[in-house]
């Protein structure tokens, strides 16, 4: 493929944002070197590649770093233009997909992290209510964007599918750890059916973190948050 050759991805297996980029690379058929990072002891390459945020993921293509997962996904879609397109071709549909992807990162990600950070069962129940309220509008977004088809992008997985879908593994981890359901089939049946389909796609399976790694990371984060208090 044009532009392919020297591609590295700095990430961590449990990061939903890094998972998002891995899914995009898989969908576009891009070969890359994956470099696992320790976010509790950040290395020189990560700090040099993303000196502003000091976070994963970072895509390094031909020696040049690209930061922020949604920006990376768009970059991948444009550079490796052959094959499936992740973003819609129609300008309006593309703007709508970007809007909802930003909604996922601005609203949904903090909401589910709030469940993980909760210090008590009562607090966790309140944070779950917040997350459910945030998830609700995605039901109508799916109906609008998909045109009644299986995925936000229509017949196949696209930009908004992976923007939301990368969080599903942590939703399952929250269910495993605390017995909470973030995408409730009773409240959002279309979205729940979409989630079941999405996690069975090859792209999702290739990038999925292990439950053990997520639970271990959750324990480290909870200890760190408790110490900060």
Question: If you had to describe this structure to a student in words, what would you say it looks like?
Answer:
This protein is α+β, with helices and mostly antiparallel strands and 229 residues long. The protein folds into two domains: 7-79, Glutaredoxin, CATH 3.40.30; 91-228, Glutathione S-transferase Yfyf (Class Pi), Chain A, domain 2, CATH 1.20.1050. Strand 3 and strand 4 (64-67) form a beta hairpin. The model has no long low-confidence stretch (mean pLDDT 96). The protein is globular. The longest helix has 27 residues, at 91-117. Strands 2-1-3-4 form a four-stranded mixed beta sheet, with helices on one face. 59% of the residues lie in helices and 7% in strands. The protein contains ten helices and four strands. It is found in: Cytoplasm, Cytosol. Residues 90-227 form the GST C-terminal domain. Belongs to the GST superfamily. Tau family. GO terms for molecular function: glutathione transferase activity.
């Amino acid at each position: 493929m044009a532009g392919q050759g020297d591609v590295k991805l700095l990430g961590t297996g449990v990061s939903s944002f890094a998972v998002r980029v891995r899914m995009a690379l898989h969908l576009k058929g891009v070969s890359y070197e994956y470099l696992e990072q320790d976010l509790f002891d950040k290395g020189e390459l990560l700090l040099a590649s993303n000196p502003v945020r000091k976070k994963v993921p970072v895509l390094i293509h031909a020696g040049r770093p690209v930061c922020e997962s949604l920006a990376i996904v768009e970059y991948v879609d444009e550079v490796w233009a052959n094959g499936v397109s992740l973003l819609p071709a129609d300008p309006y549909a593309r703007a709508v997909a970007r809007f909802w992807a930003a909604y996922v990162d601005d609203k949904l990600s903090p909401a589910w992290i709030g469940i993980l950070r909760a210090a008590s069962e009562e607090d966790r129940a309140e944070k779950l209510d917040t997350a459910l309220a945030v998830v609700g509008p995605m039901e109508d977004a799916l109906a609008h964007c998909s045109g009644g088809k299986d995925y936000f992008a229509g017949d196949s997985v696209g930009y908004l599918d992976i923007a939301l879908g990368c969080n599903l593994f942590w939703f399952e981890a929250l269910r495993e750890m605390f017995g909470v359901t973030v995408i409730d089939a009773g409240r959002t049946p279309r979205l729940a059916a979409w989630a079941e389909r999405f996690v069975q796609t090859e792209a999702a399976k290739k990038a999925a973190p292990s439950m053990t790694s997520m639970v271990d990371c959750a324990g480290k984060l909870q200890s760190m948050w408790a110490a900060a208090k």
